[in-house]
Predict the 3D structure of the following.
Amino acid sequence: MTDIPGDVVASRNAAVAATDQNSGDLAGQEYWDDLYEPVGGVSAGWKPTTYGSVAMARQFDRTIRQARPASILEIGCGNSVWLPYLASQYGFTKVAGMDYSQPGCELAQQRLKAQGVAGEIYCRDLWTTSPEEVGQYDFVYSMGVVEHFTDNKACLEAIMKFVAPGGVLFTSVPNYYRSIHGCVARFWNPSVWRRHNPLGTKALSEFYSAVGMDDICVKHVGALSLGIVSWMVEPRFPLLAKVLVPAISVSDRVLGKLLLAMRLYRGLPALAPYVVAIAKRPAWT
């Protein structure tokens, strides 16, 4: 997720959702289309090697090995490197992704094909679904999606309907709530900041409880990363960004290697790059 400055991949994976009147979509389809359009070809064999991606992979691994799901769905799968990786790593028998950005969906399908993974990519918003899709996936996840809506609870409710009874819902958001990342983002690219409704651990836990999830675990993931701010997406100072961002990218790689060597994957609320929530849908629903 932090393979390029600004965590752009994670932001691209946030391109899910619905019409403004249904969801309070703070970003909008056009924004994500503009991010995906310049992306060239895709390649196979992506694996988590950077600090942020390794920290997240550890959370996925722990959750998937414990739950042993057979089917997987990524909400906001535009240009996703995670869906083909997880599908090939854990051998899911049913693989699917959903996004409302056509360019993002095309890239996601190309990545599955490049990895040799058979899966379905559904190009539609989160609220457009058929009855046979409801409750069909043992493991449903999103990465940088829920925080792009004014009504976080409604977004989680819409996502939860895809989770099979007894299945797992995994939500990851960038840690913009009362953190150094949020402060920098608000100053550096305020237009991007306004597309976020930041969530902390308390809010995510309360929303998970409100939509009826069980065995809720909410935590900060990662010690520190310089790649959470979208440095090159609509920066306030474009000329300065051209000079500053390469140095930030190098610093982030050095910092990541150090943290990997030290095996530091937990962080303080003000510094951690991600907030993750994991819970089960009750088996009787």
Remarks:
- Confidence is low (pLDDT under 50) at residues 1-21.
- The longest strand covers residues 163-174.
